[in-house]
Amino acid sequence: MRTGTMRTLHAEFTAKPGCAEEIAERLAEYGRSVRAEPGNVIFAPNRREDDPDRFFVFEAYADEEAFQTHLAAPYGGPFNEALGPLIREPASVLTLLTPVE
């Protein structure tokens, strides 16, 4: 059984003009892989209603071990490499969160 504090974060990024649909498709495919990880609690990609070119992904992992396993997954690097040219930012803007208990 896993122990430790759940690791949560969110990622935000903005699609370059004309790239939002490709990003949405890639996120859906990537999400299926992430949600199959044993320690994944949630992987929820969303688009902002007021600006559908803006993406927000909420992620939670059972603990640090599960998060590190996620980071080492073989599909993460290729996903991020493919995402890079499609977004305005140099990379996804990640915010690590600490649970309030």
TrEMBL record:
GO terms for molecular function: (4S)-4-hydroxy-5-phosphonooxypentane-2,3-dione isomerase activity. Keywords: Isomerase. The keyword S-adenosyl-L-methionine does not apply. Residues 7-95 form the ABM domain. It comes from the Bacteria. Its EC number is 5.3.1.32. InterPro entries: ABM_dom (IPR007138), AI-2_Isomerase_LsrG (IPR050744), Dimeric_a/b-barrel (IPR011008). The keyword Isomerase applies. PANTHER family: ABM DOMAIN-CONTAINING PROTEIN, QUINOL MONOOXYGENASE YGIN-RELATED. This is (4S)-4-hydroxy-5-phosphonooxypentane-2,3-dione isomerase. The lineage of its organism: Bacteria, Bacillati, Actinomycetota, Actinomycetes, Propionibacteriales.
